[in-house]
From TrEMBL:
It catalyses: a 5'-end NAD(+)-phospho-ribonucleoside in mRNA + H2O = a 5'-end phospho-adenosine-phospho-ribonucleoside in mRNA + beta-nicotinamide D-ribonucleotide + 2 H(+). It comes from the Bacteria. It comes from Rhodococcoides trifolii. Belongs to the Nudix hydrolase family. NudC subfamily. One of its GO terms (biological process) is NAD+ catabolic process. PANTHER family: NAD-CAPPED RNA HYDROLASE NUDT12, NUDIX HYDROLASE, NUDC SUBFAMILY. Its cofactor is Mg(2+); Zn(2+). GO terms for cellular component: cytosol. GO terms for molecular function: metal ion binding; NADH pyrophosphatase activity. Its EC number is 3.6.1.22. It is an enzyme of class 3 (hydrolase). This is NAD(+) diphosphatase.
Length: 304
């Protein structure tokens, strides 16, 4: 098979939310003396309950931590170290000024800002849903600078969870890719297929099962492409490519897909050039925005 075939393509760009050069400084999370000493020069990222932050010219706005709390705040989470200074995040009820979230602004944020925001949103989302121990039902308190919670009854420690989900670009090994639309999406908005990994299941087995359940196709030649955090609320998207027979009938077996169809490489290139799901006009096909790993997968396949 020629080296530039669909079967051998790889991601040509790093998924947008995988850009995270931040030093997470794990060794500091339980060092209360070091964290307290660094508080006077630390910065704080404030995040409202909708996951929005203040932005300014492609960067998230950080404020001095001491302006938020004179001493280290118990409800703040430690994100890491940038330029020798500690960076924290805290959830607040409301913010003023120019606000944006990852879905709207992820593609224009610089790498540091993207890394800080995706980590902050993921951690704070987890804390909002982990107030009680899953083991004994007792209230929990923040520990390890926001990277765990402990039961007030037993001391049992729980950690932030990420739910693995596969996302798979199914192609025919030649010049066509399968795209699908969920029932809740407006017409013409299509993407690649995705689904959560079940208990006791490998990622490759999940690819086979999800594609068969959603569109009735049998896939082969499964290859890993890359991954991206997706903190809405706590997923990790694990990207694959796989081949299927374009002549095999499509069937929508689990109700998660409203329609699916094969599109040529040229049709995908045209849709990518139009923009994303928000593009105006009567285009027959609209594709996900650049914040999604699906976009990077489709761009890489189309460029082959």
């Amino acid at each position: 098979m020629p080296e530039n075939s669909s079967s051998t393509f790889s991601l040509t760009t790093e998924p947008m939310l995988s850009r995270s050069p931040i030093d997470r400084a794990e060794e500091l999370r339980r060092n209360t003396d070091a964290l307290s000493a660094g508080w006077s020069t630390a910065s704080m990222l404030l995040v409202d309950h909708q996951g929005r932050v203040r932005i300014d010219e492609g960067r998230v706005v950080l404020v001095p931590a001491v302006d938020v709390s004179e001493d280290r705040a118990d409800d703040a989470v430690f994100l890491g170290v940038v330029d020798g200074k500690h960076i924290w995040a805290r959830s607040v009820g409301a913010l003023s000024g120019e606000l944006a979230d990852l879905r709207l602004m992820g593609q224009v944020l610089d790498d540091d800002s993207a890394g800080l925001l995706v980590t902050a949103v993921a951690l704070l989302n987890w804390h909002r849903s982990a107030s009680f121990s899953s083991i004994d039902g007792s209230p929990t308190v923040i520990s390890s600078a926001g990277w765990s919670r402990k039961s007030t009854a037993s001391g049992h420690e729980e950690f932030p969870r990420s739910d693995p989900a596969i996302i798979c670009l199914v192609h025919d090994g030649d010049d066509h890719v399968l795209l699908a639309r969920q029932p809740v999406w407006p017409e013409r908005r299509m993407s690649v297929l995705a689904g959560f990994v079940e208990a006791g299941e490998s990622m490759e087995t999940c690819v086979v099962r999800e594609i068969r359940e959603e569109v009735g196709l049998d896939v082969t030649e499964i290859r890993y492409l890359g991954s991206q955090p997706w903190p809405f609320p706590r997923s990790l998207m694990i990207g694959f490519a796989a081949e299927a027979d374009r002549n095999q009938p499509l069937s929508f077996n689990d109700g998660e897909i409203a329609e699916a169809a094969w599109f040529s490489r040229e049709q995908v290139r045209t849709a990518l050039a139009l923009g994303d799901w928000t593009a105006d006009g009567d285009a027959p096909l609209l594709l996900p925005g650049s914040i999604s790993i699906a976009r990077a997968m489709l761009e890489s396949w189309a460029a082959n």
